[in-house]
Amino acid sequence: SKNLLKQDCYPTAEPLAEIQAAMLGPWETFPLTGPFVGAAGEPLKQMESLQNASARLVSLFKDFLTTYEKSYLDERETQKRFRIFAENLEKARLYQELDQGTAEYGVTKFSDLTEEEFRATYLNPLLVKLPGRPMKVASVPNGSFPEEWDWRDHGAVTGVKNQGECGSCWAFSVTGNIEGQWYLHKGTLLSLSEQELVDCDLIDKACGGGLPSNAYEAIEKLGGLETEGDYSYQGFEQNCGFSKEKVAVYINSSMTISPDENEIAAWLAKNGPISIALNAFAMQFYRK
C-alpha cells in the first residue's frame, strides 16, 4: 500500500495521548501527535486528521492481518505488533522517498517485525562474519551485450520459492544458480533441494546462515543435489537424509565473478543465472 502515514517529530500545543475510534478494541489505539499530511501530501485539520489517521492505520493493519493470515497470542502481543506495523509504515515511506530507482516499498508480510527480528530470522550473518572460500576467478566475456536480459523469459529459472523462517537464503541462491546452469547445459529445468544443503552441508550453519562458496564445495563432496520432490524443504535443520542414488544434478567446480556490476551483467547475459548476495535489510518493505 502506498497510503503511508507521515508523522512529524515535534510536540503540538495540545498533545493527545491516544485516539480511540468508535467500536475499536484496545489494540486498535495508537498514540498520535500532529500535524499530519494525507497520502497525497495535503494538510489535514488537527482533530479530524487524528481521527482519520487512526482509522486509516487500523484499516491498513486489519488488511495486513487478513492478507498474510496473521494471528497473535494475545491482546498484548497484538498491540505490540500494531505499533511496530505503524512504525514500519513510516520507514517504508522514507525508503520510498530516498529510492533513486523504480523500487516500490510498502506493506509486506514482514511489516509486523522489528528490524532486529527481520535480521535475525531472514538475513545471513555469516556473510560478514566468515571469509569466503578462495575460488577461481571467472574471465569477463568480450563483446557487446543487451541492455536487458531476463533468464526467466528463456526457461532457465524455476518458480518463486519461500525460505520461511529459516536463514537459508544462501542455499536458495546456490540451487537457483545450479538449476539455471543445468538447464543451459543439459536442457532440463529441475527444482533442486535446498533442504539437502540445510541438513547435509556441514561447513555452513543451516538456518543460522551460510556462504555460497562453502555450499558449492559441500555439493561436490556429497556428489550432487537431489530434486525438491525427493528431498523436500522443511524450513528447519534435521538429520541428513541425502541419498546418492537420488542425485539428479552434479557440479564439477565453481567460480567467483568480478564485483563490477557491468561485468556481472555481461557474464550473466552470456553464461546464465548466477548466485549473488546483496544487502537485503531494506527488502523488509520491498514490494516490487
From TrEMBL:
It comes from the Eukaryota. Residues 61-118 form the Cathepsin propeptide inhibitor domain. Pfam families: Inhibitor_I29 (PF08246), Peptidase_C1 (PF00112). Residues 145-288 form the Peptidase C1A papain C-terminal domain. One of its GO terms (biological process) is proteolysis. InterPro entries: Papain-like_cys_pep_sf, Pept_cys_AS, Peptidase_C1A, Peptidase_C1A_C, Peptidase_C1A_papain-like, Prot_inhib_I29. Keywords: Disulfide bond, Glycoprotein, Hydrolase, Protease, Signal, Thiol protease, Zymogen. GO terms for cellular component: cytoplasm; endomembrane system; intracellular organelle lumen. One of its GO terms (molecular function) is cysteine-type peptidase activity. Belongs to the peptidase C1 family. This is Cathepsin F. It comes from Micrurus spixii.
